[in-house]
Design brief:
This protein is α/β, with parallel strands linked by helices. The protein has two domains: 185 residues, Vaccinia Virus protein VP39 (Rossmann fold, 3-Layer(aba) Sandwich); 54 residues, S-adenosyl-L-methionine-dependent methyltransferases (N-terminal domain of TfIIb). Strands 3-2-1-4-5-11-10 form a seven-stranded mixed β-sheet, sandwiched between helices. A four-stranded antiparallel β-sheet has the order 6-7-8-9, with helices on one face. A hairpin with a 2-residue loop joins strand 6 and strand 7. Helix 2 packs across helix 3 and helix 5 crosses helix 6.
């Protein structure tokens, strides 16, 4: 069964992120690089988006975009339980529009890697440009920059637990076509839900963009300034290609 059809387990699997600290970082980027004040924030490929819920707690207008109705329903339900408001848009991230532009756009935990071709990436940038005010930032988390590293391929496993639900996550990456930079990515969740065991696994084909190829495509698109590659946890520029990173764009 698809992992992404299980919002609760998916959220627990990725709950290792310090959300308040991460949102603090977004605000630091805004203070340093945005040319406009930020009131409305768009999270693209949002999933359960604890980030949007935190932003809503800080009185931002929070908008989540995803093509999964189950994820969006879960996000709205969790936001309601937490006493905050998050609006949602069901759409594909390569072709979408909003009813009004955002001041800041986010795409997190490597979701940008689900875009499978140069043409789709350019269409995605067009969609973000339509949905973002001039001078606003686009924060892209975890591009696959570290092709040089022996750890780029292979698998990693981690375990998270919340309220009696234990989720062991295995994420693996296999190179399937070096010429076309195609990868096979598998995400597996092994669950112990109060003694009830179940597993979910999903494999998708993705395409990675080399760091300077990505910059060239941003320049070809023409709607954004490329401000640089940064550390994932600070506003410091990268000095080497690492997996934990942020690419920062600004709408022209």
């Amino acid at each position: 069964m698809p992992v992404y059809d299980e919002p609760l387990y998916y959220e627990i699997a990725f709950s290792f992120v310090d959300i308040p600290r991460q949102v603090d970082l977004f605000e630091e980027f805004v203070e340093k690089y945005s040319r406009i004040p930020v009131r409305r924030v768009l999270d693209i490929g949002c999933g359960p988006s604890q980030q949007l819920r935190e932003l809503a707690r800080r009185s931002y207008e929070a908008v989540g975009l995803d093509r999964s109705p189950r994820m969006l329903a879960y996000l709205r339900e969790r936001a309601h339980e937490e006493g905050v408001r998050v609006s949602t848009v069901e759409a594909d991230m390569t072709d979408f529009s909003l009813d009004g532009p955002a001041d800041l756009a986010l795409i997190l935990i490597g979701t940008i890697g689900l875009i499978g071709s140069r043409e789709d990436l350019l269409s995605h940038l067009d969609s973000v440009a339509r949905s973002l005010k001039g001078g606003g930032l686009y924060v892209i988390e975890n591009l696959k920059l570290n092709w040089h590293s022996p750890d780029f391929l292979g698998s990693q496993t981690w375990t998270m637990e919340r309220s009696g639900v234990r989720v062991e996550t295995t994420y693996s990456v296999e190179l399937t076509d070096a010429l076309n930079q195609m990868l096979s990515e598998t995400l597996r969740l092994d669950i112990n839900d109060h003694g009830k065991r179940k597993s979910f696994e999903e494999t998708i084909e993705t395409r990675a963009f080399f760091p300077q190829e990505f910059v060239a495509l941003v320049e070809l698109n023409g709607e954004f300034e490329f401000l640089g590659y940064f550390e994932r946890s600070s506003t410091r520029h990268l000095t080497e290609a690492i997996p934990d990173n942020i690419a920062l764009l600004r709408r022209r």
